[in-house]
Design brief:
single chain, globular, mainly alpha, Growth Hormone, Chain: A
C-alpha cells in the first residue's frame, strides 16, 4: 500500500507545475498588455507636447519673443520634462524596489494624466502674461517626473512576468509606446489641423489631445488593476532580499553598469528627438512645407517603427542582445548621414522614407532595450538601477537635443551638417559602449 501511494504522489507536483506555467503565461500576457497600454497613454501626452512645442507653443506661450527665440524657449520647456525624468526615475525606482512594481505604476499613470489634462486647460500668454509659460514649465516637469517612473516600471512589470526565452519579444511591446504614441499624437494633430484649419487649431484644437488624457487614464487604471505583482519581486520580498535604500545600493554596487547603459542609450534618444521634434520645425519653417505633410510623414514613419521594434526584440531572443544592438547601431549610423539630404528634396515620398528608415533603425534598439537594461541588475535594485541609466540618458541626450539642434542650425547659417555630426558623435559613443557590454540573454532575472 505504501509503495502504491508513493508511486502516485509525483503526479500532483507535475500537474501543479503545469497549472502554474499556464497561469504564469496568462499573467505574462496580461502584464504585457497592461504595461504597453499604460506606457502608450503616457507617451501620447509626452509626444503631443513635443509636436505642439515645435509648432504652436512659440506663438501662444512665447509670443512676446522674437520668433527664433520663441522656438528656442519652447524647446527649453520641452527639455524640462527630461530634467525631471531622472528625479522621477530615482524616486519611483526606490518605491518600486521597496513597495513593488504594480503600485508605483498606478501612481505614475494618475500623475501624468492630471498634468497633461491641466496643460490642455492652460490660458495663453495673451490671457495671463508670464504666468502662462511658468505654469507650463511646472506641468511639464510633472509630466517628466511621472514618465521617469513609468517607463522603467512598465518594462520591469513585463520583464519579470515574461518567459525567460522570450523576454526580448515581450519587452519589445513596452517601448511600442514611444513610436505608437508619436504616430497617434501626430495622427490626431493631422486630423485636427485638417478639420479645423490653422487658425482654430492654434486657438483651441491643440488642447484636444491633452484633455482626452483624462478618459484614457481611467481606462489605463482599470487595466492595470487586473495585473498581479511580479514573481521576481514577490520572491525577493519573501526571502527578505529587498534593499534598504535601493538607489544608493545601485549606484554603490553597479556604477559602471549604470554609466555604460546610459551611454548606450544616448544615441537612440538624441536621434529620436531630432526626427520627431526638430524635423517638424525644419520641415515647416525652413522647407516651408505644410504642417499636415510633416505630421502625416512622421505618423507613417512611427507606424513602420512599431514593426521594427518587435523585430528587434524577437531577434535578440535568438541572436543575443549585444549583436542585435550593434547591428541596429551600424544601420542607424548609415542612415543618419543621408537623413537631411533626403528631407531637402521636399519630396514627401522621400521625406517619409528618410523618417521611416531613421526611426525604424533606432527602434530596433528600442525593442531590445527593456531586456538589455533589466537583465544586468538583481531584483532588489533593478528598478532603481535601470531607471537611473534610462532616465539619465534622456536627461543627457533627450531633453537638450531639440534646443541644441535648433541652436546648431541657427549658428551654422541654416546648414544641417552640424546636426548630422551631432547625431554621428552620439552613435559612435553608443557603439563603443555596446561593444564593452556583456551578453545577458541567459541570465536568471529572479536572482
Amino acid at each position: 500500500m505504501r509503495q502504491t501511494i508513493n508511486s502516485a504522489t509525483p503526479a500532483a507536483p507535475a500537474d501543479t507545475m503545469e497549472m502554474r506555467a499556464v497561469t504564469m503565461n496568462a499573467m505574462a500576457k496580461r502584464a504585457t498588455i497592461a504595461s504597453t497600454f499604460g506606457a502608450a497613454l503616457e507617451w501620447i501626452d509626452f509626444a503631443a507636447y513635443g509636436a505642439v512645442a515645435a509648432t504652436i507653443f512659440p506663438k501662444i506661450f512665447f509670443s512676446a519673443m522674437d520668433p527664433k527665440m520663441g522656438i528656442l524657449a519652447a524647446f527649453v520647456t520641452f527639455g524640462v520634462g527630461f530634467f525631471a525624468r531622472p528625479l522621477g526615475g530615482l524616486f519611483f525606482g526606490m518605491l518600486g524596489d521597496r513597495l513593488g512594481r504594480k503600485h508605483v505604476l498606478l501612481y505614475t499613470l494618475v500623475l501624468m494624466g492630471v498634468a497633461s489634462f491641466l496643460i490642455g486647460c492652460l490660458p495663453t500668454y495673451q490671457s495671463i502674461g508670464i504666468l502662462a509659460p511658468l505654469f507650463l514649465v511646472v506641468l511639464r516637469f510633472l509630466q517628466g517626473f511621472a514618465l521617469g517612473g513609468e517607463a522603467t516600471g512598465a518594462q520591469l512589470m513585463t520583464m519579470e512576468h515574461a518567459p525567460p526565452e522570450r523576454r526580448g519579444l515581450f519587452g519589445s511591446f513596452i517601448n511600442l509606446g514611444s513610436s505608437f504614441s508619436a504616430a497617434v499624437a501626430n495622427g490626431m494633430l493631422f486630423v485636427l489641423t485638417s478639420l479645423l484649419g490653422a487658425q482654430k487649431f492654434e486657438e483651441w484644437g491643440w488642447r484636444v489631445p491633452f484633455l482626452m488624457s483624462f478618459l484614457l487614464v481611467i481606462v489605463g487604471l482599470y487595466i492595470r488593476m487586473k495585473v498581479s505583482e511580479t514573481p521576481a519581486f514577490e520572491q525577493a520580498k519573501a526571502q527578505q532580499h529587498e534593499a534598504k535604500v535601493p538607489v544608493i545600493e545601485a549606484f554603490r554596487q553597479y556604477p559602471g553598469t549604470i554609466l555604460r547603459l546610459l551611454v548606450v542609450w544616448c544615441a537612440p534618444t538624441a536621434c529620436f528627438y531630432v526626427i520627431n521634434i526638430f524635423s517638424l520645425t525644419y520641415i515647416t519653417k525652413t522647407l516651408e512645407l505644410s504642417s499636415q505633410t510633416a505630421f502625416l510623414c512622421l505618423m507613417g514613419a512611427n507606424l513602420v517603427a512599431v514593426f521594427t521594434m518587435i523585430l528587434g526584440g524577437a531577434v535578440s531572443d535568438r541572436l543575443g542582445r549585444k549583436p542585435t544592438m550593434l547591428m541596429a547601431s551600424v544601420l542607424t549610423l548609415v542612415i543618419a548621414l543621408s537623413y537631411f539630404s533626403l528631407l531637402d528634396t521636399k519630396n514627401w515620398y522621400l521625406i517619409f522614407f528618410a523618417m521611416a528608415a531613421f526611426v525604424g533603425a533606432l527602434q530596433i534598439q528600442s525593442g531590445v532595450q527593456p531586456a538589455f537594461f533589466a537583465e544586468p541588475f538583481p531584483t532588489r535594485v533593478r528598478y532603481s538601477g535601470s531607471a537611473a541609466a534610462y532616465t539619465g540618458s534622456n536627461l543627457v541626450a533627450g531633453g537638450p537635443t531639440p534646443f541644441i539642434a535648433a541652436w546648431l542650425f541657427q549658428h551654422s547659417g541654416g546648414q544641417t551638417w552640424s546636426i548630422t555630426v551631432f547625431c554621428v558623435a552620439f552613435i559612435v559613443c553608443s557603439m563603443i559602449a555596446i561593444l564593452a557590454s556583456p551578453e545577458t540573454r541567459h541570465v536568471d532575472i529572479k536572482r
